[in-house]
Specification:
elongated
Length: 299
């Protein structure tokens, strides 16, 4: 499924934590990790004339060793300047199937590149993007802070939440969900949120009718997954409310190991920074999120 994954990191302690998570990619067929250390141009320029250059080299070696210890082959490169442009170049150069990146969520700090890195890639990525959530915690060393994993990454596909609006893009994301089931997913929850802002003027009878239609759609998706693995545990759920908040609320309730969704959907704005569902989930979810970009291709 994802035989070659690009791991985009920086120099922070959180990056090393995420490097320790790559073992969760093994069920997805990952054999090789392309480690990309991302620096802003000004950071790279100032580092070249400071003692930080040794810190940079040590960080890169540390992350390489962490990946190798998990029995992956690894190649590393350092990129400067426009992150999404350089990451896209590396994706093409190494023919990567997916990108894995740390994210600080809504607690993004301006002095930590990880938050900006994840945000920029979400907006421009051309391959599936796996976001590993970090959280900032205090240390015992004066007022310093560090980053740790916000959730376990022991088994990425133990329990998957797939949110769909039944758009063509959601169908693309479903193709990846099928691949995850083939890779050994144990439990899947298929979720659809009835947008009550759009349905505010509909009668209760019509809403019940819509629920019945959409439950039938979810049932067809369930049957497609069961054709892959008849023993797969599948839950169907329809919720009423605002999709952004309801998906997050439901995810926090069931605590899946992974959330899968497309980066755009039916009726949502194309600019992710304007508040699309995918960006909201990516910023606020406490678990791993797999975002599938819209390509129009049948993978």
């Amino acid at each position: 499924m994802f035989s070659k994954v690009l791991l985009a990191t920086d120099l922070s302690k959180g990056s090393a934590e995420v490097a320790r998570c790559v073992h969760g990619l093994k069920p997805l067929g990952t054999k090789e990790i392309i480690l990309a250390e991302c620096l802003k141009t000004l950071e790279a320029f100032s580092m070249a004339y400071s003692e930080d250059v040794e810190k940079f080299k040590a960080s890169l070696i540390e992350q390489e060793n962490i990946v190798k210890e998990q029995e992956f082959s690894v190649k590393s490169e350092t990129v400067f300047g426009s992150v999404h442009t350089e990451i896209d170049r590396l994706i093409k150069k190494y023919d990567c199937n997916a990108v894995m990146v740390p994210s600080l969520g809504h607690t993004m700090l301006s002095d930590i590149l990880l938050g900006n890195l994840a945000s920029e890639l979400i907006n421009h990525i051309t391959k599936p993007l796996l976001l590993v959530r970090l959280k900032v915690v205090d240390t015992n060393n004066e007022d310093k802070k560090t980053c740790i994993l916000a959730s376990s990454c022991e088994n990425f596909i133990a329990s998957i939440l797939y949110a769909t609006d039944f758009s063509e893009h959601a169908d693309e994301a479903f193709l990846y969900l099928r691949k995850l089931v083939k890779s050994g997913a144990e439990e899947v929850t298929l979720l659809h949120v009835q947008d009550m802002v759009k349905l505010a003027n509909e009668s209760k009878e019509n809403i019940k009718r819509f629920d019945a239609i959409d439950h039938g759609r979810l049932s067809k998706l369930r049957d497609r997954l069961l054709s892959i693995n008849p023993a797969l545990k599948i839950n169907l759920k329809i919720i009423h409310g605002k999709p952004k908040s309801e998906i997050l609320k439901f995810a926090n309730k069931i605590d899946p190991s992974l959330i899968v969704l497309g980066t755009q959907g039916r009726g949502y704005v194309g600019d992710i920074f304007l508040g699309s569902i995918s960006y909201t989930i990516a910023r606020n979810s406490l678990t791993l999120v797999l975002l599938i970009p819209k390509t129009g291709e049948n993978k």
